[in-house]
Design a protein that fits this description.
It comes from Streptomyces siderophoricus. Keywords: Membrane, Transmembrane, Transmembrane helix. This is Secreted protein. The chain crosses the membrane at residues 12-34, 55-76. There is one protein chain. This protein has a domain at 48-78. Helix content is 72%, strand content 0%. By secondary structure, it is an all-alpha fold. The longest helix is centred in the first third of the chain and has 29 residues, at 5-33. It has two helices and no strands.
Length: 78
């Protein structure tokens, strides 16, 4: 039995890049939906994110869901 080290390295590299990208995209979604912190001297209530931030967050979450669904499709279809 021989191991194709080049193929193993390629799988590892692609997996690493996709994982980091997906986690980063999910983080963008979380940041887009989070409330802004209150600065000193301002009112006590935290401000809600703007419409653009919420839209960007929804797009980020939709892309994450699409990537996960595609991954499941690749596993199940084989």
């Amino acid at each position: 039995m021989t191991i194709d080290w080049a193929a193993l390295g390629q799988v590892f590299g692609v997996t690493l890049v996709v994982t980091v990208g997906l986690v980063g995209l999910f983080t963008v979604g979380i940041v887009g939906t989070s409330r802004k912190p209150v600065r000193e001297g301002e009112a006590a209530a935290a401000t809600a994110p703007g419409a653009g931030a919420r839209t960007g967050a929804l797009v980020a979450f939709a892309l994450c869901a699409a990537a996960v669904a595609y991954g499941i499709y690749l596993i199940v279809a084989a």
